[in-house]
Specification:
Strand content: 15-25%
Structural class: alpha/beta
Number of strands: 17
Mean pLDDT: 82
Distance between the termini: 54 Å
Number of helices: 12
Shape: elongated
Low-confidence stretches: 28-38, 204-216, 237-250
Radius of gyration: 27 Å
Helix content: 25-40%
Order of helices and strands: EHEEHEHEHEHEHEEHEHEHEHHEEEEHE
């Protein structure tokens, strides 16, 4: 396994900025506000000829705080426990604080190799002045500016050749790369809780307070020969309610993560009605043709005698995307959670289906002849032939005499028949209608 380095320190010293700089990409949200990072983020970077797994953590307050603060501290302390070495980040401009000393004492008790990155040192002329106080902590120092890149080359060298010098690299077991699943939904729907239940550990910070998750956070699960990656995202609220710049950025990253995932899981709260925002999220994912599962969470709140009626009502609400499978889950009890991965695998198989042009035309010719398109102003659409042009998602092109003659109701019929005849019940699908005068190629 790659050597693991936890990046820790008190709030707002620039840990996430340094994390991004070491990775050479924007993996973590950064903001002037303290306490932006809450869950621990992990990502690989190559330093010289060695792979290193860096873990970004929330600011350590060490004591007190509300439920969220205590959860952040628990996540950071867990990262220290899991890591093989520690990169302690301090603020050179602010100087040594009592909280820095308490964080250093906690790290010292872990016995892990530690290097201090004295951040916000913008050049060599300030090094001696801004690092002097931190020698009292008893660790080696590396002056850097995460924002401007000063000292980063030296820091990378020292991480490999000093901090990790006595930590041998181990060969990682070979696993087939499984699916990447993004959890999307309104705040407090239970996305983090579902991921914790799936991976079997409290990997993500969970709270009754809405908006706990701010960044897109990865958690992995190895099952059999496959490694799955779950992406927890910030709760998406109605645009009119998103007035904070940090939340707006979190929402943008959530939507991008969902669009890039193999499969997205849209998490709904069984204790709340299917809102206009849920419908907008569903419409967005439909437009982007993202493979999708609807997970109605917190079903343990629904009395058993009302369960069937409740499920029928939910499916009726979701008729706007009738091909999307619905899984009723409870992260608390585990009910239904084990259905998510098999369903995701099935949807991905459907997205990769490839149907020969000959078979497509034979089957659909019979289907369209049996139920011809309706007339539009005394004219009827004529279907000449069709072909599949892409997979992921399956994309079909029908060549017709005039696409405007194909009514929306008939387009739905065509899609339903494609799904039925070729066993594609759940995957997103693109269907295009193109004008053609080549009636000689009718049905191949």
């Amino acid at each position: 396994m790659p050597a693991t380095v936890a990046i820790v320190g008190r709030p707002n010293v620039g840990k996430s900025t340094l994390f991004n700089r070491l990775l050479r990409r924007s993996a973590a949200i950064t903001h002037d506000r303290a306490g932006v990072t809450r869950d621990r983020l992990a990502s690989l970077a190559r330093l010289e000829d060695r792979e290193v797994l860096f873990i970004d953590t929330g600011g350590l307050e060490m004591e007190g705080g509300d439920e969220i603060d205590q959860g952040i501290m628990a996540q950071a302390r867990e990262a220290v426990t899991e890591a093989q070495a520690i990169l302690l980040v301090v603020d050179g401009r602010e100087g040594l604080t009592g909280l820095d000393e308490r964080v250093a004492e906690h790290i010292r008790s872990s016995g892990k190799p530690t290097l201090i990155a004295v951040n916000k040192v913008d050049g060599p002329e300030k090094e001696a002045e801004l690092t002097a106080e931190f020698h009292a902590l008893g660790f080696e120092l590396a002056p850097v500016s995460a924002a401007h890149g000063y000292g980063m080359r030296d820091l990378r060298f020292r991480l490999v050749n000093e901090l990790l010098a006595d930590i041998p690299g181990e060969k990682e077991p070979e696993y087939e790369q499984g699916l990447r699943l993004a959890m999307l939904g309104r705040p407090n729907a239970g996305k983090s809780s579902l991921i914790n239940r799936l991976v079997g550990a409290d990997r993500l910070l969970v709270s009754d307070q809405a908006g706990t998750t701010r960044d897109a956070v990865d958690a992995t699960l190895v099952r059999g020969e496959k490694r799955y990656t779950f992406v927890d995202t910030a709760g998406v609220r109605r645009r009119a309610k998103v007035t904070d710049s940090l939340e707006r950025f979190s929402v943008m990253r959530a939507l991008k993560s969902a669009a890039r995932a193999n499969v997205s899981v849209l998490v709904l709260d069984a204790g709340q009605s299917f809102s206009q925002q849920d419908k907008k999220l569903l419409a967005y994912l439909e437009k982007e043709k993202v493979p999708l599962i609807m997970a109605v969470n917190k079903t343990d709140l629904v009395p058993k005698k009302e369960r069937k009626r409740f499920e029928r009502a939910v499916r009726e609400e979701l008729r706007i995307a009738s091909h999307v499978p619905v899984v009723f889950t409870s992260a608390l009890s585990g009910e239904g959670v084990d259905r998510i991965l098999p369903m995701a695998e099935k949807i991905m198989e459907e997205t990769r289906i490839r149907i020969s042009t000959g078979k497509l035309n034979r089957v659909m010719h019979e289907v369209l002849t049996r139920h011809q398109p309706p007339q539009v102003k005394y004219r009827r659409a004529k279907f000449y032939y069709l072909t599949q042009t892409e997979t992921e998602p399956p994309t079909f092109v029908f060549f017709v005499n005039q696409p405007s003659l194909v009514k929306e109701s008939y387009k739905r019929y065509v899609e339903n028949q494609l799904r039925k005849q070729f066993n594609i019940p759940h995957a997103p699908m693109r269907i295009h209608y193109r004008a053609s005068r080549d009636s000689q190629q009718k049905w191949g």
